[in-house]
Amino acid sequence: MCGILGSWGWADVPIFENALAKLAHRGPDGQGFWQQEDPRIMLGHRRLSILDTSALADQPMRYGGRVIVFNGEIYNFLEIKQELLKKGYAFLTESDTEVVLAAYDAWGSACLQRFNGMWALAIWDIKKQELFISRDRFGKKPIFYTYAQGALIFASEMKALMPFMNSPKPHQHFERFSGRLMEYENEEDCLIEGIKRFPAGSFAQIRLADLKSQKLFASKFWYPLEHLPRVASSYPEQVEEFRELFMSAVRLRMRADVPVGTALSGGIDSSAVACAMHHIATKIGDQKLAKSWQKAFVGTFEGTILDETHYAKAVVDKIGAEATYISMDPAKGIENLQEYLYYFEELYLTSPIPMIEVYKAISKAGVKVSIDGHGADELLSGYGHTLHALKDCGLSTDYIKHILELNGIKDYSLGKYFKVLVDLCGGRLGFGSFLFQKLFGLHRDNPASRELGYFNQALFVIYNQTILPTLLRNYDRYAMAASVEIRMPFLDYRLASYCFALPWQSKIPLGRPYTKSIIRDALGDLMPDLVRYRATKVGFNTPILEWMKGGWRTFLLDTAHSKDFLHCSLVKGEDTKHALETFLSNPNASYYEAERIWASMMPYFWQKAMFKSN
Question: What is the C-alpha to C-alpha distance for residues 317 and 528, in angstroms, rounded to an integer?
Fold first, then answer.
């Protein structure tokens, strides 16, 4: 896990070095620089040493006639390395970076299909004078790029591109982005004018003609719905298949030459990861398995609805982990807000403070890798999208009752079913269109997604377009602010593809008062029953309602009344000030109101962090 920076056509080395220094938090273990005069190429790297911590694995790394800068991990690099050894390739390091270069030499861009991991990489071919850029299937690792003075510059974060720009400023359509906080991550344009986001699951081969035209053409190498495997016909067999895939995903992600741990919330997803890690380390093993893996880190929110310490402790006791409990102090956190938003770079519904504090505690404990449970909600419906299954179940009374119960609806009558279905379709017109499609087999959606059914299609949207891309972006910034690498077993492409191939009935089987049943059934023998049979979901987040009304109250009021805030072009100053005062005076204000007020103030904090700290 590292920070990368590169340019083609830029000549000013001091500016390049200054920009590279802005990525130091992504790679505190070392800095590397490589340049070529004709054509003018510069590659920079900030290293967080995870695999082969020796100087031999430093970057930029040269292999034959190519040079690479690489951010991420290829978890199955040992298996790929064995293939390459049989082809006659030789290696000087124990790193995955060298394997990536050799794989590119052997298979070209087709090597990407073989990688199981997360990556943002750039390879310069010295002989061909060609630049190859790629980003992993789901976009866990970021690449941004811009053109300045005829040069192409790319980097892991926007702040590293800003020194190359004459006068960086917010995007002309900034207000549109701030109104679509869960959607803009899937777009090319960014919050800063002139900076573009390289798309996930893609690669680009850039030649001199492309540089001159200032056109970057990205080609997709991964379409999730075109890689769906066959699944067993019975649910018990599916449970076994899921368990095998999940254990493999966790095992590969436990490979490291440094200590690893886990951010444990007490929810079903993070608990499954922690318990699987314990099982693998004590019962299965693996070549290259981290020697230190037993540490769990729990963020606590005493006195708030978000506190899950009770559940996390049950997991810690079950697996005998070394637990660190991080008590969140809202007053201390708000003091670091500007610094944290500078690392974060983006807008969101809530603050990054608790998440960054957890990863800072992980880093302070000497742990460089956190294996976490992100991604399961989007695959297996952790956000309450189960109502969409009403469109799939037709008139099956058992499933109608089950789905309504999952959503807290006690009225099982046919009239209630149709009312919910009409609302779900967006009204009578939408319901009529839905019935027409069902009756005549006509669909206006993507043919590739048609076989998923309505419920799985709803999950696919949040997985591929909205919630998950945003979450992956956020957690990259949270962890990198603390120089920690996050690995996510649920984002193993084999497991993700398998989950989308599962029929909707296997995701919400009858008789279960909770979602994500297949995780519970596949790993339940490894988890405490308190967590396995837990039906409630909280999620690790900022207790923003309590903090805004408590420890942050004075800070927020002072901000909203300041001349700087009221004159900021990115916020509606007077309207936001009034909304904040109304919210703070309302004893019945909701969590969602708190999020809305915070989101309306966030552009001001963002501008202050990004443009006054750069």
Answer: 9
Do 593 and 583 meet the contact criterion of CB atoms below 8 Å apart?
A: yes
| Pairing outcome for strands 41-47 and 202-206 | unpaired
* pLDDT beyond 70 at 99: yes
User: Which pLDDT score, from 0 to 100, does residue 426 have?
Assistant: 79
CA nearest to 196, candidates 216, 225, 172: 216
Would strands 2-8 and 151-155 be described as parallel, antiparallel, or unpaired? antiparallel
Q: What is the mean pLDDT of residues 440-448?
A: 51
Distance of alpha carbon 193 from alpha carbon 215, whole angstroms? 16
Read off the amino acid at residue 283.
Answer: K
Q: Which residues partner with 152 through β-bridges?
A: 8, 147
- Name the nearest CA neighbour of 374 among 449, 227, 279, 476: 476
Asked if 278 and 247 count as a contact pair (C-beta separation under 8 A), the reply is: no
User: Which sign, positive or negative, has the C-alpha torsion 528, 530, 533, 539?
Assistant: negative
Strands 295-300 and 322-327: parallel
Residues 76 and 592: their CA atoms lie apart, in Å, by: 42
Q: Residue 508: which of 360, 416, 384, 370 has the closest Cα?
A: 384
User: Tokens 């943002």 identify what position?
Assistant: 120
Let me know: does 424 contact 485? Beta carbons within 8 Å.
no
Mean pLDDT across the chain: 92
CB 91 within 8 A of CB 102: yes
d(CA 143, CA 122): 10
pLDDT at 416: 82
- How many angstroms separate the CA atoms of 89 and 103, rounded? 9
**Coil, helix or strand for 421?**
helix
Q: pLDDT value at position 425?
A: 82
Q: Which helix (H) or strand (E) holds 144?
A: strand 144-148
Separation of alpha carbons 186 and 382, rounded Å: 21
Closest to 294 measured CA to CA, from 265, 324, 339: 324
* Cβ neighbours for 191, distance < 8 A, ≥ 6 positions apart: 158, 170, 171, 174, 177, 345, 346, 347, 606
Q: Which of 544, 537, 545 is nearest to 271 (CA)?
A: 537
Choose the weakest-confidence range: 137-151, 287-301, 384-398. Answer: 384-398
Q: How far apart are CA 209 and CA 227, in angstroms?
A: 34
Residue 346 DSSP one-character state: S
Residue 81's contacts (CB-CB under 8 Å, 6 or more residues apart) are 91, 99, 102
Residue 456 predicted with pLDDT over 60 = yes
pLDDT for residue 29 is more than 60? yes
| CA dihedral for 471, 473, 474, 478, sign (positive or negative) | positive
- pLDDT tens across 59-98, in order? 999 998 999 999 999 999 999 999 999 999 999 999 999 9
In DSSP notation, 66-122 reads: EEEEEEEEETTHHHHHHHHHHTT---S-S-HHHHHHHHHHHHGGGGGGG--EEEEEE
- CA–CA dist 294, 15 (Å, integer): 43
Please give the helix or strand (H or E) that residue 30 lies within, else none. Answer: strand 30-36
In degrees, rounded to 5, the angle at the alpha carbon of residue 299 between the alpha carbons of residues 22 and 478 is 20
What pLDDT is attached to residue 613?
A: 53
